[in-house]
């Protein structure tokens, strides 16, 4: 027993060193060692891992890996996984079974395709006994049930159109469906490979699938943003308005909704221009306009408005397009305008720069011009103006005021918001109606009201802004507590805070830089 283990250990070391003569000498003395394993790895597998084909062939000549019953986790799977075409040719000459799955669920062909050993795959496809429609059965999720993955699918994922053609010529069925219901055209649409898509379409693969809970290839091309692939599918007759869901999901979506959700603006525009229904909503009541607002896709929004979509429609939560535009604005406007709004708001050049509003502000103007109701309230009773003040979205607030939005005084004069709105109102005085100023100034002293209505120069107007803000915040609350000391904590431009806190007694001291 001990001597046998010693001989096996010696043989294993000789294989690792690549000493073919020593290996052959030991096998001549005991040929039963050829098909043994050392520490759980067969000696033949070790030789293959060491990339020593001469020793591997020597072991095989003594019967290693070639006995009946050894195919289940056999040599050919190891060879195809490692990409050893020399040993594969030898095995094919020995008529080794080429279609059996190993314990991992792979066939030799699926191993070669998954590992990217294209020369191996080519040899197997050309072998007369290879069945190219036998899938690997792999555990790809947590269901504890193996899922079929076909050789053609793996070739498509590799992007090798030559192997795709060879497989189809050998009889691979492009209509075979995996566990998601996806066929070869689905997977080609996921990768966006137009050469493979074109080949499959020329071979009459159905461009749509009948199942309700399986996306069409066009849905997947839209999800992954492959414009050229989508164009090819549409030209081949794909249903541009097919409403489908994925398996396990109840969301019914058409291609243009998917493209817009995934922020593929060019693809959304292509679908709209080629007949996509722009008026339908998803199961949550979100229209294409709402989705374009959610994702800030101004070109898509402009196109939809030009086609006359309803800009006032609500989803099932009672939200409407302007609210979604505001939510996107909250994420983007402050960041994009931070430089302009931080230190230039009180300067004349800053005023001019603020007129160059970002895309989201232009979107507001466009929606308002198309009939959006500025004073419409959500289910909580708030308007877009209320939210624009709460979130300190000053450029949007200016646009709303210019177009006649009605302020809510209980919202506008909140302690931490008062200075925000007055800052905007005074700096953009020429944009705002006089009656709105009357309402705001009605909360201040008569003396300040009288000062305001005088014909003042810009510097005097900015000085008045400080007086008004300080007057309002001084009186806020129970009449005894002042929040003037907290001005520095407010979300205001630094120059304005300095001015309100009298850290700069004149506008010249602000050193405002454009």
UniProtKB/TrEMBL annotation:
InterPro entries: Ankyrin_rpt, Ankyrin_rpt-contain_sf, SOCS_box. It comes from Potamilus streckersoni. The keyword Repeat applies. Pfam families: Ank_2 (PF12796), SOCS_box (PF07525). This is SOCS box domain-containing protein. Residues 449-500 form the SOCS box domain. ANK repeats lie at residues 180-212, 213-245, 251-283, 284-316. Keywords: ANK repeat, Repeat. PANTHER family: ANKYRIN REPEAT AND PROTEIN KINASE DOMAIN-CONTAINING PROTEIN, ANKYRIN REPEAT-CONTAINING PROTEIN-RELATED. PROSITE patterns: ANK_REP_REGION, ANK_REPEAT, SOCS.
């Amino acid at each position: 027993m001990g001597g046998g283990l010693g001989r096996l250990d010696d043989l294993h070391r000789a294989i690792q060193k690549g000493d073919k003569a020593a290996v052959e000498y030991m096998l001549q003395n005991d040929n039963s060692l050829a098909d043994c394993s050392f520490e759980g790895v067969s000696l033949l597998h070790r030789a293959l891992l060491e990339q020593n084909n001469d020793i591997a062939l020597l072991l095989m000549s003594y019967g290693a890996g070639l006995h009946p019953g050894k195919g289940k986790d056999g040599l050919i799977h190891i060879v195809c996984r490692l990409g050893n075409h020399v040993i594969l040719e030898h095995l094919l000459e020995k008529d080794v079974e080429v279609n059996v799955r190993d314990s991992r669920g792979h066939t030799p062909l699926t191993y070669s395709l998954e590992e990217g050993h294209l020369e191996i795959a080519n040899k197997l496809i050309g072998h007369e006994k290879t069945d190219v429609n036998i899938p690997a059965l792999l555990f790809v999720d947590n269901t504890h049930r193996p899922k079929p993955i076909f050789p053609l699918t793996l070739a498509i994922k590799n992007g090798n159109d030559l192997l795709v053609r060879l497989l189809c010529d050998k009889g691979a069925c492009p209509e075979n469906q995996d566990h998601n219901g996806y066929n070869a055209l689905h997977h080609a649409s996921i990768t966006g490979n137009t050469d493979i898509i074109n080949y499959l379409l020329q071979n009459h693969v159905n461009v749509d699938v009948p199942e309700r809970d399986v996306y069409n290839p066009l849905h997947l091309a839209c999800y992954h943003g492959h414009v050229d692939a989508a164009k090819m599918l549409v030209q081949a007759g794909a249903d541009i308005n097919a409403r489908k869901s994925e398996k396990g999901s109840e969301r019914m979506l058409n291609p243009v909704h998917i493209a817009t959700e995934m922020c593929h603006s060019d693809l959304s525009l292509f679908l709209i221009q080629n007949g996509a229904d722009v008026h339908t909503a998803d199961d949550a009541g979100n229209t294409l306009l709402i989705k374009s607002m959610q994702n800030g896709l101004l070109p898509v929004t402009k196109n939809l408005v030009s086609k006359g979509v309803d800009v006032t429609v609500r989803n099932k939560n009672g939200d409407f397009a302007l609210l979604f535009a505001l939510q996107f604005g909250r994420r983007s406007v402050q960041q994009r305008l931070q430089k302009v709004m931080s230190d230039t708001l009180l300067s004349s050049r800053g005023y001019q720069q603020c007129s160059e509003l970002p895309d989201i502000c232009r979107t507001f103007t466009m929606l308002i011009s198309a009939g959006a109701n500025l004073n419409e309230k959500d289910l909580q009773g708030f308007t877009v103006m209320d939210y624009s003040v709460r979130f300190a979205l000053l450029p949007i607030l200016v646009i709303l005021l210019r177009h006649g939005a009605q302020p809510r005084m209980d919202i506008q004069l909140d302690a931490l918001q008062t200075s925000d709105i007055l800052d905007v109102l005074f700096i953009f005085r020429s944009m705002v109606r006089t009656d709105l100023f009357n309402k705001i100034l009605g909360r201040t002293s008569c003396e300040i009201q009288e000062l305001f209505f005088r014909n003042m120069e810009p510097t005097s107007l900015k000085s008045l802004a400080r007086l008004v803000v300080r007057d309002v915040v001084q009186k806020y609350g129970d009449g005894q507590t002042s929040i003037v000391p907290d001005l520095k904590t407010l979300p205001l431009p630094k120059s304005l805070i300095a001015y309100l806190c009298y850290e700069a007694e004149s506008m010249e001291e602000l050193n405002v830089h454009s």
